[in-house]
Amino acid sequence: MTTPVLEARDVTMRFGGLTAVRSVDFTVNAGEIVGLIGPNGAGKTTFFNCLTGLYVPTEGTVSYKGTVLPPKPHLVTQAGIARTFQNIRLFANMTVLENVLVGRHTRTKEGLWSALLRGPGFKKAERASEERAMELLEFIGLAHKRDHLARNLPYGEQRKLEIARALASEPGLLLLDEPTAGMNPQETRATEELVFAIRDKGIAVLLIEHDMRFVFNLCDRVAVLVQGEKLVEGTSEVVQADERVIAAYLGEPFEGDPGEAEAAEVEAAEAAAEATSTTSSTKGEAK
Ligand SMILES: Nc1ncnc2c1ncn2[C@@H]1O[C@H](COP(=O)(O)OP(=O)(O)OP(=O)(O)O)[C@@H](O)[C@H]1O
Ligand SMILES: [Mg+2]
């Protein structure tokens, strides 16, 4: 039995004359890692914004664990959906630890300002909150940088910190918008492991990514958005083999796809092997 965590029904988002998302039905089940892919401008981020209350969809509803969500970001977070942003949004002049503590404010009785100003009510909850924040920083591999300012972290670590901050709201569903953008191949591999570890903690994951190897390695299911519409949805194998998907991407090389360089290498190697075998067979004939 699969239990839906997220259910988007007939979600449409129009900006004036532009329909960025068109009648999208979408489900994420408990225990799943689901990928959302599509060319630039397909409406992926807009769809995330509709799911998280940043945009009020023109039509349609979004439910979390069977309850329709009000389109207000803090209520969506409170319900149990956390996210990261395509363009990193951290408090640049706060420390790594403080950024995670801010992420916890929806789960503590003390409000954001109390947390920031360290008022009397905050003192009591402070230790427990800090313990949890440190646990998350250890999980993400940034505990040793707890007192560094967020703006001084390398890009890849800023992305990780955003994930830690999102996890601090104790979500049941985590949305990641291009988690490996700007990462080197090692960081990307590590992020892959991290996403598996998050899923193993019982948090469902929905991610947008242009790195196809990352997506197809990780995801139980992948949906393809093209011009605001869900074109195909299925397992990695099904989606990779779908000609409509290949056509949708033609002329749009995947950003930062390590597969592309490798494909060129393989092609070159094949060409070289062919040249060698032609030479040897010519020699063979000559004998
Ligand atoms: N607030 C907005 N007002 C008007 N148009 C918008 C707004 N947000 C997004 N759009 C438009 O909606 C379309 C979808 O954009 P969106 O950012 O969702 O694409 P995307 O699939 O995330 O692309 P990318 O892979 O480049 O991040 C684009 O044409 C974009 O210009
Ligand atoms: Mg986007």
TrEMBL record:
Residues 276-287 have a biased composition (Polar residues). The keyword Coiled coil does not apply. InterPro entries: AAA+_ATPase, ABC_AA/LPS_Transport, ABC_transporter-like_ATP-bd, BCA_ABC_TP_C, P-loop_NTPase. One of its GO terms (molecular function) is ATP binding. Residues 253-287 are annotated as: Disordered. SUPFAM superfamilies: P-loop containing nucleoside triphosphate hydrolases. Keywords: ATP-binding, Nucleotide-binding, Transport. PANTHER family: AMINO ACID ABC TRANSPORTER ATP-BINDING PROTEIN, CONSERVED COMPONENT OF ABC TRANSPORTER FOR NATURAL AMINO ACIDS-RELATED. This is ABC transporter ATP-binding protein. It comes from Streptomyces lomondensis. The lineage of its organism: Bacteria, Bacillati, Actinomycetota, Actinomycetes, Kitasatosporales.
